[in-house]
TrEMBL record:
Higher taxonomy: Bacteria, Pseudomonadati, Pseudomonadota, Alphaproteobacteria, Hyphomicrobiales
Top-level division of the source organism's lineage: Bacteria
Native source species: Neorhizobium phenanthreniclasticum
UniProt name for this protein: Helix-turn-helix domain-containing protein
UniProt xrefs under Pfam families: HxlR
Domain HTH hxlR-type: 9-107
Keyword DNA-binding: yes
Length: 118
């Protein structure tokens, strides 16, 4: 493929971000309803505060998530999915459903492959 620039590949650029360890889980949660930071932290208890903050910032930077600050004392912050995020989540939800339905078959295929490699 002459002239192909892997660094400017739009598919890789988008998929690399949403395929992160935490991005899909957060998008799945935010597809249901808006959440405050602490609520998201409780939904994904094994994510560190730093990683939750960074992942939300990355999703916000890419336009999938919006952060709204409410003028309360102390200020409260809510995260919600944007229209762009919703348009992404529609096809992504099909992949997530496929993964759940086919996970046993994938695990079986891995085990079969690993046995043949011994």
């Amino acid at each position: 493929m002459s002239g192909w620039d892997a660094g400017n590949c739009p598919v890789r650029d988008v998929i690399d971000r949403i395929a992160g360890k935490w991005s899909t889980l957060l998008l799945e949660a935010l597809a249901r309803r808006p959440y405050r930071f602490g609520e998201l932290r409780r939904l994904v208890p094994d994510i560190s505060q730093r990683m939750l903050t960074q992942t939300l910032r990355d999703l916000q930077r890419d336009g999938y998530v919006d952060r709204q600050v409410f003028p309360t004392k102390p200020p409260s912050v809510e995260y919600r999915m944007t229209e762009l995020g919703r348009s992404l989540f529609e096809p992504l939800s099909k992949v997530l459903r496929w993964a759940e339905e086919n996970h046993p078959a994938v695990k079986a295929a891995r085990a079969k492959f690993d046995e043949s490699e011994v």
